[in-house]
Specification:
The protein is an alpha/beta fold and 856 residues long. The protein has 6 domains: 181 residues, inorganic pyrophosphatase (n-terminal core); 116 residues, Diaminopimelate Epimerase, Chain A, domain 1; 119 residues, CBS-domain (Roll), CATH 3.10.580; 123 residues, Beta Polymerase, domain 2 (2-Layer Sandwich); 182 residues, cca-adding enzyme, domain 2; 47 residues, no CATH class. It is built from 37 helices and 27 strands. Helix 12 crosses helix 13, helix 32 crosses helix 34 and helix 32 packs antiparallel against helix 36. It is globular.
Length: 856
């Protein structure tokens, strides 16, 4: 016997999940708790006849073989009868969206993932199985999603909840019914209890947060305490509210929170409860209100996570200006570094702030030569390193300022901007939608570093770690190797970034462990070759700025944060801390790890492709290599910025194209280049895209006939020629020719366009025309045209390199022939005869030669 059941005090998510599970398990019996929240009670008062529920007392639990639990994973929250269930003999299936708890069952199946509502998980399963959903069912499922996500406003909401709701709309979800039951009107008993809780509530300030505790006792049970607690939170505008109410014999504890630093679960679990970070409850049967209240207040600190301080989010070291810096110079520096303001420092003391707005006003009046001290703001508001994020937000809002200098011992040690605040808030509230991603995200990946890299590389990283610690210098592993460690892909390209003097650090490694070292002073980089042969690139952390779009960047020393910000994509903008104290700590300021698990290519800022259009080509390469895709914003920026590609040097374009076409899926790469308007910048033709794609696919199938192994890695060039050839602009290919081999291919293709290949019916005849032309150009023409004798031409290309002439020049001399043009002609005709199967042995070759000489 199969039974579907949920938790007591049934809410809409539980009700919806019960009905959704019934669609997946049609032979199961739905058991409905006799305790429902007010919203569900009101709903069932109208629609109860539409359902087929039974009470738990009507079930012979000894006959139950399979228990399907929804919207809960703890048997204790289903009902008292579970104490007598033959659990060991049952198969237990769980569908739940709550974080796991210690007392949860270990299910034999189902889905437990942290989305906004459990019914979302079940709707996904129903959709996968292509099961029909009626309009009424879609409405109930929608009620579950809307109520448990707070109309998609709770931070537990995911894109999957939106997608499920969208699907339910397609199935006929009734929004009028949703609105009627989602927006609950309080009954008189609830209104009275809310007023009592409001009067009895007390505010407690802990570590900068306001926590409201509301305590009350009444004889009669009143449902809807969760709704009342949420309304109290909204009314009080507090960071969290905990309601403690004794009704009849039991004490009910409900918590609601709005601050990211609050996690209610540790407190609620003390009383056997559960839920989410910002919403949960517990019930203490026959509990003592006074004792429970005392315990809650004494343990309120459990719900607080450590405060985020200015020291953790500030940018440091700070770029500052002197009071005598000109307005013009300050503007140049703002553009270079992307800042919108600068602290003005004199004799190590903060004396003012200059903003972009101040500069604009001065420039408007033609005062670019004036010093910044004449226009800087001197009414300064600053913070210290221990100022909390909440306090910082209040200061920014109250004073409407965009940057706060961080002062320690009267010196500027950092600066906090609106961008710093937004990035931290985003980091705290970000919800990852992909399955199991939340559990996969890691702060420290030392284990992955050790297991993924070879013992030799890991040993060298430990040497680097020891040296960094002794020198007191922060050192990081950076770049593609960090990405590939997380993706569990091989990579032995070790790049090290030093916050300080990279060259000095490389010299110290050389001194400590030997090997050789190459120094590049102008770039602040060095290459250290370890005695075992491993090459390590070491660089000073730096930033890049572009004087004009598509130009090569200028480089200068900076912080790790700015070094990462100059990277192309979030998945490549991560670093691993190598110093001993935090070895393996992942530095991920742009959520690259999340994008990795979501398979997303995302630029770091809107001007990324304008500054370096070749990043678009790299994005396509990563899409192909990892089966990732650009997010909507990145793809839009790529298309908008593609015209900048015209200003990029042929050498840089070819460098990226070569790497792209050496990836496995050339067809996908070529199609993406058309989709993003790359080829259109050089050929001006969109109409020939499908023709070009047909040629690419055909060429890929013919590539096996290219027999020149020495040039195998250069075959990509004929793919590059296809769009130009298809658009009848083949001459424009010449701009991109960088090697003699590619020049030969180009000239051969031009020559082939003048030859009517379809006129040649034999391999020998083709040989007379094509002997001097390379395989790649011939295969290119076959792929580009529909030739009636295509099979013969392909056979010719395949066979001509295996020809082993039976007669040599020395043998021709023995026939009395003098070396000269006649030798070349005879040997060519000999090869022609062999290709046409007229000569198949040395004897027939000698006979053929005798007859040929007689005709001379």
């Amino acid at each position: 016997m199969q039974v579907i059941i949920s938790h007591m005090n049934t809410d809409f998510d539980a009700l919806a999940s019960l009905l959704a599970a019934k669609k997946l398990y049609p032979k199961a019996t739905i058991v409905l708790s006799d305790k429902q929240n007010t919203q569900v009670k009101n709903f069932l008062n109208i629609y109860r006849d539409m359902f087929d529920f039974v009470q738990d007392r009507d079930i012979n639990w000894q006959e139950v073989t399979e228990l399907i639990i929804v919207d809960v994973a703890s048997l204790s929250r289903i009902g008292n009868f579970t104490n007598e269930l033959p659990v060991e003999q049952m198969k237990i299936i769980v569908y739940d969206h709550h974080p796991p708890a210690d007392k949860d069952v270990h299910p034999d199946g189902g889905v437990i993932e942290q989305v906004g509502a459990t019914v979302t998980l079940l709707v996904e399963k129903i959709k996968q199985k292509s099961l029909d959903i009626s309009e009424f069912e879609a409405t109930i499922f929608g009620l579950g999603i809307y109520t448990d996500t707070g109309n998609f406003t709770y931070n537990t909401t995911t894109t999957r909840d939106f997608q499920a709701a969208s699907y339910l709309m397609e199935c006929g979800m009734n929004l009028e019914i949703l609105q009627r039951f989602v927006e609950e009107t309080l009954v008189p008993g609830q209104q009275t209890l809310l007023e009592k809780l409001f009067i009895a509530s007390k505010s407690i300030e802990i570590d900068g947060l306001e926590i409201v505790v509301a305590i009350y006792e009444q004889e009669d049970f009143q449902g809807g305490l969760a709704t009342l607690t949420q309304k109290l939170l909204d009314t009080k505008a507090a960071d969290a509210v905990v309601s403690i109410v004794k009704m009849k014999h039991h004490v009910y504890i409900v918590g609601r929170a709005s601050a990211d630093r609050v996690n209610l679960q540790p407190l609620l679990k003390m009383f056997g409860g559960g839920g989410h970070q910002h919403a949960g409850s517990a019930t203490v049967k026959r509990g003592n209100l006074t004792e429970i209240t005392t315990s809650v207040k004494e343990n309120l600190n459990l719900i607080l996570q450590p405060a985020v301080t200015a020291k953790q989010i500030m940018t440091s070291p700070v770029k500052t200006l002197s009071p005598e810096t000109t307005i013009e110079k300050a503007g140049d520096l703002m553009y270079r570094y992307g800042h919108s303001g600068y602290p003005i420092v004199e004799n190590d003391r903060l004396v003012g702030i200059i903003t972009r707005r101040d500069l604009d006003k001065a420039n408007h009046h033609g005062l670019g030569h004036a010093p910044v001290k004449a226009y800087m703001t001197t009414n300064l508001i600053s913070i210290n390193p221990e100022t909390t994020l909440e306090e910082i937000q209040n200061i920014v809002i109250e004073h409407n300022i965009g940057r706060l200098p961080v002062i320690d011992s009267e010196k500027v040690v950092g600066i906090v901007t609106r961008t710093n605040i937004i990035e931290k808030i985003h980091e705290q509230t970000q919800v990852i939608d992909k399955h199991d991603v939340v559990n996969n995200l890691k702060d420290n990946i030392k284990h992955e570093v050790e297991s993924q890299l070879s013992p030799e590389i890991f040993s060298v990283l430990q040497h680097i770690s020891e040296t960094a610690t002794k020198m007191g210098t922060n050192v990081y592993l950076i770049g593609g190797i960090v990405r590939d460690i997380l993706l569990k892909k091989p990579n032995d390209d070790v790049d090290i970034v030093v916050e300080g003097d990279g060259i000095a650090f490389a010299k110290q490694l050389h001194k400590n462990y030997g090997g050789t070292i190459k120094i590049h002073e102008s770039f602040g980089t060095a290459t250290w070759q370890h005695p075992r042969g491993l090459e390590i690139d070491i660089a000073t952390s730096r930033l890049e700025y572009y004087e004009r779009p598509a130009s090569l960047p200028d480089v200068e020393v900076s912080t790790l944060q700015e070094d990462l910000y100059r990277r192309d994509f979030t998945i490549n903008a991560m670093a691993i801390y190598l110093n001993e104290s935090q070895f393996g700590q992942l530095v991920d300021p742009f959520s690259g790890q999340s994008d990795l698990y979501n398979g997303t290519i995302k630029v770091l800022h809107n001007l990324s492709f304008v500054e370096d259009p070749t990043r678009i080509l790299r994005a396509i390469r990563f899409e192909t290599r990892f089966q990732f895709s650009m997010d909507e914003r990145t793809e839009a920026l790529a298309i908008q910025s593609m015209e900048q590609m015209r200003g990029v040097s042929a050498n840089r374009i070819i460098h990226e194209i070569k790497r792209m076409f050496q990836e496995e899926n050339v067809v996908k790469v070529m199609r993406r280049l058309y989709e993003l308007d790359f080829w259109q910048q050089f050929t001006g033709e969109q109409s020939v895209a499908e023709q070009a794609m047909t040629t690419v696919e055909k060429l890929q199938s013919l590539q096996t006939y290219l027999s020149d192994e020495s040039q195998k890695n250069e075959h990509w060039f004929i793919y590059f020629c296809i769009p130009f050839f298809a658009a009848d602009r083949f001459n424009q290919t010449e701009r991109f020719i960088l090697t003699k081999h590619h020049r030969q291919i180009y000239e051969d293709i031009k020559q082939l366009t003048k030859i009517s290949l379809e006129e040649y019916a034999s391999k020998g005849a083709l040989h007379r025309q094509l002997k001097s032309l390379n395989d790649e150009s011939i295969i290119f023409i076959i792929a580009s045209r529909k030739l009636p004798n295509e099979t013969i031409i392909v056979q010719y290309v395949n066979e001509r390199h295996s020809l082993r002439p039976y007669i040599t020049g020395e043998q021709l001399k023995q026939y009395g022939l003098q070396p000269g043009p006649v030798f070349k002609k005879i040997l060519l005709e000999l090869e022609v005869a062999m290709l046409d199967d007229e000569i198949q042995s040395r004897k027939t070759a000698e006979d053929w030669l005798q007859q040929y000489i007689e005709k001379l």
